[in-house]
Design a protein that fits this description.
Elements lengths: L3 E6 H6 L3 E4 L10 H17 L7 E10 L8 E6 L1 H16 L11 E3 L5 E3 L1 E3 L3 H11 L3 H4 L10 H17 L5 H11 E8 L5 H9 L7 H10 L7 H12 L5 H9 L27 H7 L3 H6 L24 H15 L14 H4 L8 H21 L2 E4 L7 E4 L1 E8 L2 E8 L4 H12 L8 H10 L5 H15 L5 H6 L3 H4 L21 H14 L5 H4 L8 E4 L25 E4 L1 H7 L4 H9 L7 H7 L9 H20 L8
Parallel strand pairs: 2-4, 2-7, 3-8
Antiparallel strand pairs: 1-8, 3-4, 5-6, 9-10, 11-12, 13-14
Length: 653
């Protein structure tokens, strides 16, 4: 099966007038905040650090096949790449909605010879999706599909629109936005693979799904580091690496599988650091596996064999989780901590999983001892990461929706054998604040983890209060968002003693509407939750989750045409009239009168937002107006001021 392969920019797709059919066998659009923000963050990072206008960003392979419509020369079925192509359409739409003059808006529509236009995508049977996308162009989708959260094929598209709009307005300076759009248009490249006519699509899908195991950057780094240690130690350090690598299980499960330990002799606290007493390596056992694990980089690349690890399982699935970072990112955080501990002054501050081999410099490991220290530090970092950092898990009473949870490790006995089991911890302030940090920092990088993990490694026997205090120090000084240099400076006492910039709160007295940084809404949810009566049944079910749509309490387009009196300022778009919701939650309130919104809000099983709960519990909510907005806004600002003014910058010994 021979493909024709081209490199196509977004500009090429526009100028050559390509259009795409999403065939019936394609799954719905399912990219969530995380995938979209990772993509945009990566492109923004490349755009910011580009050495020239010719620096391109590649989004990977896409596979298409010429459609059977002979009247359309450039019409293709998207076999693989729908999620990325659709995301770029949503990005182009966001620039249009935000009235940013950029060439990328040309990606939205195709031009027919008869001078008519249509959206660049069409769907074999999902007419609803095509109509929704067309409605986005004239801003009518929110009217036609007010129940969008209930529609499987539309809900992620609607969320994606809000995620992209907010990313552009909060992460990119206004003067750079048009240039950023033009960069996407001219420099984002697809590897465009065109399948030959009459291709057996079933065979192609099988080939795409089982086309071999690609050598990852972490595999290459592992081999290069192993070359720096003595041959007699390679098996041991290879196993240490393998135990840390699988981020879909908890550490103790990985260690038990890799080292084949006798669980009856090991306690949870024994995993804190690598100890040959519990995790010995027998050079004579599993010889084929050991020999493979100790190969050099040259031997790995030249080998025709592919080692596929098959996970052994038992009836206990409590070790299953989804990490908030990839293994590549864990490696980079470990590398940052390694340099901080060694007091190296110059090393790469950025965190980018795609440039792992460029970020971690082999020159920083001049000896076997230094390299071995890095392997052993990786073990320690992974241990504290799993012990103290939230993971995505299913709650015991919820079979469908993952939450960010902390866990506790236990040893259980089953069929005369010991197993390690994880149970979800009770909801805590630490858990809530980590959720704030996760959702408001860079989804890929999570810069806050470097100072937090460093702190956990440097301090033993910490209480929950001390851990929370440290998280608050990190969050307060980094506010708002992901500051890579600050995340390193936080390790020093000098930076920790800096006063928090209360002036940052001045922005909350301005009228920015949907352009307010979401951080302020998230931070208030945390602060309000801390002091809320925990006996409230609704608060027991409340979680800080991904939110990306700003709700106007007094609606922008009131259903009865009512207007908010604007005496001396635009109070409609002020912080006091706003709350942060998911797209589905926001669309359920729509442009209803405030009294109707209160009824809907009160009928929910939990609070959609604690800031909004404060508003809807106001005694004057039925006559919600400018004075009420002013009062609520000042209350929220005071809550933040009190928090920052009483914040401490040193851990209590």
């Amino acid at each position: 099966m021979k493909f024709k392969t081209y490199i196509k920019t977004v500009e090429d797709i526009v100028k050559e007038n390509y259009e795409f059919i999403i065939p019936v066998y394609q799954r719905p659009y399912v990219w969530d905040d995380e995938e979209i923000k990772k993509l945009l963050g990566d492109i923004l990072n490349t755009f910011t650090n580009a050495n020239s206008d010719n620096t391109n960003y590649f989004v990977g392979n896409t596979y298409v096949i010429k459609s059977s419509n002979k009247m359309r020369e450039k019409q293709y079925e998207l076999i693989d790449g729908q999620q990325r192509f659709t995301t770029f359409w949503l990005i182009a739409n966001a620039f249009k909605l935000l009235n940013i003059k950029s060439d990328i808006s040309d990606y939205l529509e195709i031009n027919y010879p008869n001078k008519t236009k249509d959206i660049r995508f069409d769907f074999d049977i999902r007419i609803e999706v095509a109509n929704y996308l067309k409605g986005l162009l004239d801003n009518s989708s929110y009217l036609k599909f007010s129940d969008v959260n209930e529609k499987e094929f539309l809900k992620f598209i609607a969320k994606g629109v809000e995620t992209i709009k907010h990313f552009i307005t909060s992460e990119i300076k206004e003067v750079q936005r048009a240039d950023f759009g033009n960069y996407i248009y001219k420099n984002v490249c697809f590897v465009f693979n065109v399948a030959p006519a009459n291709t057996d699509l079933n065979a192609l899908f099988t080939a795409l799904g089982t086309s071999g195991i690609q050598l990852q950057q972490s595999d290459i780094l592992k081999a290069r580091l192993l070359e720096k240690v003595s041959k007699s130690s390679r098996i041991k350090y290879s196993k240490i690496w393998d135990a840390c690598e699988d981020m879909s299980n908890y550490f103790e499960k990985n260690v038990a599988d890799v080292f084949n330990i006798e669980r009856s002799s090991v306690k949870p606290e024994n995993f804190k650091f690598y100890d040959t007493t519990f995790f010995s390596v027998n050079d004579n056992s599993n010889s084929s596996e050991s020999n493979d694990q100790s190969k050099t980089i040259t031997e790995i690349i030249n080998s025709d064999e592919v080692d596929i690890k098959v996970e052994t399982t038992n009836s206990d699935n409590s070790s299953k989780c989804r990490s908030i970072i990839s293994f590549n990112i864990l490696l980079i955080h470990t590398y940052r901590i390694f340099n901080l501990q060694k007091q190296h002054l110059k090393f790469e501050h950025g965190i980018d999983p795609k440039t792992l081999l460029l970020t971690i410099k082999l020159d920083d490991f001049p000896s076997s001892e230094e390299t071995e220290h890095f392997f052993e530090l990786l073990w320690k970092v992974r241990y504290v990461f799993d012990k103290h950092v939230v993971k995505w898990r299913i709650e015991e009473d919820d079979d469908n929706d993952e939450k960010l949870l902390l866990t506790e490790i236990n040893t259980i006995r089953s069929y005369d054998k010991n197993y390690f089991s994880r149970t979800n911890s009770a909801y805590s302030s630490s858990q809530m604040l980590q959720s704030v940090l996760y959702f408001t920092g860079g989804f890929t990088q999570q810069y806050w983890l470097t100072p937090f993990l460093f702190f956990l490694l440097e301090n033993e026997n910490l209480t929950n209060e001390q851990i929370l205090q440290e998280l608050e120090i990190i969050d307060n000084i980094m506010l708002p968002g992901d500051k890579k240099e600050v995340s390193l400076e936080l390790v020093s006492k000098m930076k920790r003693n800096d006063k928090i910039d209360i002036n940052a709160l001045n922005i909350l007295n301005e009228s920015h509407g949907t352009s307010f940084h979401h951080y302020w809404f998230y931070k208030l949810e945390y602060l309000i939750w801390k002091t809320w009566d925990k006996n409230d049944n609704k608060i027991k079910q409340f979680r800080i989750t991904s939110k990306n749509s700003i709700e106007h309490v007094f609606p922008q387009n009131h259903e009865f045409g009512n207007k908010l009196e604007n005496a001396e300022s635009d109070w409609l778009n002020s912080f006091g009239n706003l709350g942060l919701l998911s797209v589905g939650e926001n669309s359920s309130y729509n442009n209803q009168d405030v009294r109707k919104k209160k009824v809907d809000f009160d009928n929910k099983q939990t609070y959609d937002s604690l800031k909004l709960a404060k508003i809807y519990s106001s005694p004057n909510i039925n006559s919600w107006g400018t004075e009420n907005i002013k009062q609520h806004q000042q209350e929220m600002i005071t809550t933040l001021q009190n928090h920052y003014e009483t914040a401490v910058t040193e851990i209590v010994e």
